[in-house]
Design brief:
mainly alpha; two-stranded antiparallel ribbon; 2 strands
Length: 89
């Protein structure tokens, strides 16, 4: 899969980590950006990120994919996503 790719709902870019969050939430057929995921789940992006990251970090299969994205510079949405959480550690 080539990253980033556009969200089918809003055309914002989807990075490797948003893709992993989609899979962790059970969305295997169609992936959407974190902003659209948040709206679907009636949460703000930070709350959804915290919830999903907790699950992702507890599962080796998701964690392995998560850490393939290593640098902030790889984030396609640094001003409209949760980069301050995504790359805090």
């Amino acid at each position: 899969m080539d990253f980033p790719f556009p969200c089918p709902q809003c055309s914002q870019n989807i990075c490797r980590r948003a893709y992993t969050m989609n899979l962790a939430l059970g969305y295997a057929e169609e992936q959407i950006c974190l902003n659209c995921l948040s709206k679907m789940h009636n949460q703000d992006m930070e709350s959804l990120y915290d919830f999903v990251f907790g699950y992702v970090s507890s599962r080796d299969c998701f964690k392995k994919e998560w850490f393939k994205m290593k640098e902030k510079s790889e984030c396609p949405l640094p001003k409209s996503c949760v980069i301050h959480k995504c790359f805090c550690g």
